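Q&A FORM
Asked by: J.P.
Topic: structure of Lipoprotein

PROVIDED:
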Amino acid sequence: MKKIIVLIGLSFTLAACATPVTSTSSNSNDLIATAGSLTCKANELCPSVVVEWDKQNKQQLKLDVALTSSYDYYDIGNIIFTIDGKTFSYAPIGPTQQKYINRLIPKRSSNTFVIPSSFLYELRNAKNVDLAIDTNKGVIKRSVYTPTQQSMLYHNFAQLITELTR
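REPLIED BY: S.T.
REPLY: Here is the structure written out as tokens.
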């Protein structure tokens, strides 16, 4: 009897695994959401940035900037990209969200920014790109791209640039 119950359970499990996943998305841009970290040293707070197309307006990108810390919550203000000496400043669309995650990374602060998709054209031939995040505890400045070091965030922007030119 136990064998029969196990076989029936196994059959249901296999049937569930074999069910195909379908997507109803009509635009490949709907599926793009990339996260990347900046170039950081071992002892530095390293921001994480999620980049995706804005679902309401495809001419814009939505950036979610997150700071995870064992010690502090941060109030995230403006972000400033510096591309070959030229600055691009963006204000958040709302207040900073602060959330307790777990004992290992207890404090997460995040905020959302909307930037025009034309920003990607500025990145296309850049030689040096930095991101500065203005917080209540000071400015956190990290490298996005140099000719010798490319962050994951830069690779994610490059993927979006490829999608933009299609």
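FOLLOW-UP: The two ends are 59 Å apart (CA to CA).
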